[in-house]
Design goal:
The complex is a heterodimer.
Chain A (H helix, E strand, L loop, with lengths): L4 E6 L7 H12 L1 H6 L2 E7 L4 H11 L3 E7 L2 E7 L6
Parallel strand pairs in A: 1-2
Antiparallel strand pairs in A: 2-4, 3-4
Chain B lengths: L2 H22 L12 H7 L1 H36 L2 E7 L4 E4 L1 H7 L5 H4 L4 H4 L3 H10 L3 E7 L2 E11 L5 E10 L1 H19 L3 E6 L4 E4 L1 H7 L3 H4 L14 H14 L1 E9 L5 E12 L5 E10 L1 H15 L9 H18 L3 E9 L1 H8 L1 H18 L5 E6 L2 E6 L5 H16 L2 E3 L2 E3 L2 E9 L6 H17 L4 E4 L2 H22 L4 E9 L4 E13 L2 E3 L1 H10 L3 H22 L5 E5 L2 H5 L3 H12 L6 E6 H6 L1 H13 L3 E7 L6 H6 L4 E4 L1 H4 L6 H17 L2 E4 L5 H10 L3 E2 L10 H13 L6
Parallel strand pairs in B: 16-17, 19-21, 21-22, 22-23, 23-24, 24-25, 25-26
Antiparallel strand pairs in B: 1-2, 1-5, 3-4, 4-5, 6-7, 6-10, 8-9, 9-10, 11-13, 11-16, 12-13, 14-15, 18-19, 18-26, 19-20
Classes of the chains: A alpha+beta, B alpha+beta.
Chain lengths: ~80, ~750
């Protein structure tokens, strides 16, 4: 099984819609790697609204996402297939 | 507008388009206080969103493709499933349907022709479906479409407001299932109503099902039997070997059939015809036993009844000839094996035929039943009493301790059957004659034992009946001789070989041949068979009437012939036996014969013995009266040797007494005979009858008789019985010699 590269994006301190735009920019730039499962984007944010907007927007683009709380922030993982499953 | 303004307008336009795109992406608009213009341009939100949109479009494309695949997948599933599917819109137009639905409901129309049409416009079954629709909700029911039985499952598709948007109908074809159900119901009926009892048990032979007939036959209820094994029916009448063979047959052939005795709940033993079959599954594993039973009690009863009828006499219920022969053969077998002795008693009723003829068969039959009962009462349990037919009975006396016992039994039977039998207030007397044989000395097989007993019985008959006789081998010769004689006599009568000889009867006073006594001669083997030997046989084999008729015919024809030749006799005398007198038409026959020959009745004399007369005086009187009406003379033959009842001399119309030769033989030497002769002659004179002395052989006898008053004689002194021609010569010569020549 190939190793999946984790692309970290720390946007703590930013609020929406910047959070979303920054995340989309990161996803757009890596869309082929993410679709093939070679990479996934992990976003760290402390904006509560981003927890909703990011998963909804990436879902329309055909990505899966999961949200978890980590330290004082949210960890949003964006990927194409559940490599943990 | 200056550059500054143009810049602000451009940025404002960008911001508004970015906001529009962000809204489409599901997020909030950009606020200027959070993002200044230069940062905005640096971030390039339009570029970002445009890139994202191209991904959204790619994703949509993928999704559409997957949907299209899924849709054709669903269609394929719908088409290949064994059910018909129809989806209706709420306005009753067809939204969708599968291939089976097209075939079953729409006459094989194309999908495109059907979809969008109103169901009631294109399907005859629309009404039924509409009704289902009206009821709404999920329903399961069965409908019939032509020969097809369908199970319908309806479910509605509702919108977010709970309104029914579409209805899905699933039709499963249950025609085959229905047919199987109907067939199963039929089997159930057969199972319930068949007359045979049926029991089904599992592989461990535990009863799992019984039908009503089985319960009726065995007396158990189904509840009492379920879970038990068929052992509860065991009667105890079969040994372990029987059941072992039964199970062995089941194991080897999967089948057993036979007769079995089982016990009912009430404890009765019943005979059953039983067939047991194994039932095995596809892998050959035993799953059930099926046992079918038929109660053959009544069959058994019929069988034993038939068996009884085949081996017994219906009238007396005694064993018949068949069964008797069987027992006799068994006795012979046993005798050979262990040297045991046994006896056979052959019993013939005396005078039964007369009883049967005169009183009718119903009296005869009741008499036979009484005889059978008496015989049963006289023998031991081990003995077999059988009726061979008619009035013949036979007894097999087994386990004989001594030959004397058989003779004692025979004696007891003779005495037992002599006792009168009362039927309808009529007291009947009958006796029996018994012939007795002992195994092995009188016969070593069944046939000779019976034949010899029969011969011994005939010996009793000959010697005057009412008794028994033990067989001896001399007897067989006598019986054989008798049989030969019987056959030859029959032949002689048929060929008219018996001839009449005539003995002259002479009146000493007138010195005339006044009459002739016709005496029958049977020429055989160069000599003559004496009448006292063949007449009893003729009586027994019923030839006597034919013989009598021949004698009468010959005698009367002869008398007429002599008349014509100038030899004139007063009368001609013939002898008649008892059988003749008692035979119907005897008198008529004589009278007819007289007429045929043109001879007056007074010229014929009939001689009867006293014993014949005494048998039935009244009947004789009737016959003799009728003869006397035609002038026929009646003589008592052998007078003094029989009953000699003087009473009947007065009652009967008699003309002549013939003094028996036994009284003539010793006169005048024997004083007693002289006295008897005188008395008879005197009696005749007193009653006005003629006396004729027989067997006169000497002149002393002639002289005594003349002095005693009897002048009519016959005997060797004058002439023996002569053939007709010689008789004529004799008469001529006698007449010419004027009575001095003898």
């Amino acid at each position: 099984m190939n190793e999946t590269t984790e692309i970290r994006l720390d946007i703590r301190g930013q609020i929406c819609p910047s959070c979303l735009l920054l995340t989309l920019k990161e996803v757009n730039g890596n869309h082929q790697a993410i679709r093939s499962g070679a990479a996934e984007v992990v976003v760290f944010t402390d904006d509560r609204q981003a927890v909703t907007t990011i998963p909804e927007a990436t879902a329309k683009m055909g990505y899966l996402s999961e949200v978890a709380r980590e330290d004082e922030a949210y960890r949003i993982r964006i990927f194409t297939r559940d490599t943990h499953g | 507008m200056d550059e500054q303004e143009k810049y602000r307008a451009t940025v404002g336009y960008i911001r508004s388009k970015v906001d529009q795109l962000l809204t489409l992406m599901g997020t909030l608009p950009l606020r200027p206080e959070e993002l200044d213009d230069s940062t905005l341009l640096e971030l390039d939100p339009i570029g970002i969103v445009a890139d994202s949109f191209s991904q959204v479009l790619a994703h949509l494309h993928d999704t559409n493709h997957a949907l299209s695949v899924a849709k054709s997948e669903i269609r394929t599933i719908l088409d290949v499933m064994g059910a018909a599917v129809v989806v209706l819109n709420d306005d009753n137009t067809i939204d969708d349907c599968n291939r089976s639905a097209l075939a079953w409901f729409f006459d094989g129309a194309d999908y495109a022709q059907v979809v969008g049409q109103r169901i009631d416009a294109i399907c005859a079954c629309g009404g039924g479906i509409e009704a289902l629709l009206r009821e709404g909700g999920e329903r399961e029911r069965e409908v019939t479409l032509g020969k097809r039985h369908l199970q319908v499952i309806t479910s509605g598709i509702v919108d977010e407001n709970g309104e029914t948007e579409k209805s899905v109908f699933l039709y499963f074809d249950i025609t085959r299932q229905k047919a199987i159900e109907a067939s199963l119901q039929l089997y159930v009926k057969v199972f319930d109503h068949t007359a045979e009892g049926i029991l089904i048990s599992d592989r461990d032979n535990r009863i799992i099902e019984v039908n009503d007939a089985f319960c009726r036959i065995t007396g158990y209820s189904a509840d009492e039997l379920l879970g038990k094994t068929p052992r509860v029916f065991r009667s105890g009448l079969h040994d372990q070997l029987f059941y072992r063979e039964l199970w062995q047959s089941l194991r080897e052939h999967g089948y057993w059939q036979g007769e079995i005795f089982d016990r009912t709940k009430a404890g009765d033993v019943i005979p059953l015809l039983q067939a047991i079959s194994e039932v095995r599954d596809d892998n050959g594993n035993l799953t059930h036993h099926i046992s079918v039973i038929t109660d053959i009690s009544s069959l058994k009863e019929t069988q034993s009844r038939l068996d009884f009828l085949a081996h017994h006499d219906v009238l007396t219920k005694l064993p018949n000839r068949l069964l008797f022969n069987d027992r006799l053969n068994q006795a012979v077998e046993r005798g050979r094996r262990d040297h045991s002795r046994f006896a056979v008693l052959f019993i013939d009723l005396d005078r039964f035929k007369t009883l049967n003829d005169s009183l009718g068969h119903h009296v005869g039959d009741r008499f036979l039943i009484e005889v059978a009962n008496r015989l049963r009462g006289l023998v031991r349990k081990v003995d077999t009493v059988a009726r061979l037919g008619g009035d013949e009975f036979v007894i097999l006396v087994e386990q004989l301790s001594s030959p004397a016992y058989a003779q004692q039994l025979a004696d007891k039977i003779v005495r037992g059957l002599k006792a009168p039998v009362t039927i309808d207030d009529r007291v009947l007397h009958i006796g029996c004659s018994i012939g007795l044989t002992l195994y092995p000395e009188d016969g070593e097989d069944a046939v000779s034992l019976l034949r010899n007993a029969d011969a011994a019985m005939y010996r009793v008959k000959e010697s005057g009946r009412d008794g028994y006789f033990k067989f001896s081998h001399d007897l067989t010769e006598a019986a054989f001789e008798k049989l030969t004689l019987e056959n030859e006599l029959r032949q002689a009568v048929e060929q008219h070989e018996l001839v009449s000889y005539y003995q002259p009867i002479i009146d000493l006073q007138t010195q005339q041949v006044v009459a002739a006594e016709a005496l029958l001669r049977w020429p055989r083997e160069g000599g003559f068979v004496p009448p006292d030997k063949f007449i009893p046989i003729a009586e027994e084999v019923k030839l006597i009437n034919a013989i009598g008729a021949q004698v009468t015919e010959q005698a009367l024809r002869q008398l007429a012939a002599w008349d014509a030749a100038g030899i004139v006799l007063e009368y001609i005398s013939i002898n008649a036996s008892g059988s003749q007198i008692f035979a119907p038409g005897f008198a008529d026959g004589l009278i007819a014969e007289l007429e045929v020959n043109g001879i007056d009745g007074s010229r014929l004399q009939v001689e009867l013995t006293e014993n014949v007369l005494m048998r039935d005086v009244q009947f004789c009187n009737t016959v003799l009266d009728r003869l006397r009406d035609h002038g026929v003379r009646i003589a008592i033959d052998d007078f003094g040797t029989g009953y000699s009842s003087l009473a009947y001399l007065k009652q009967l119309p008699i003309d002549t007494l013939k003094l028996d030769r036994s009284f003539v033989r010793d006169i005048p030497g024997d004083q007693n005979d002289c006295a008897i002769a005188r008395a008879v002659i005197g009696l005749a004179g007193t009653l006005g009858l003629q006396a004729v002395a027989e067997g006169v052989e000497t002149e002393d006898q002639e002289q005594f008789l003349t002095e005693a008053g009897c002048s009519t004689v016959q005997g060797f002194l004058y002439a023996q019985a002569l053939p007709a021609e010689q008789f004529a010569d004799y008469v001529s010569r006698f007449q010419q010699s004027t009575g001095t020549e003898h």
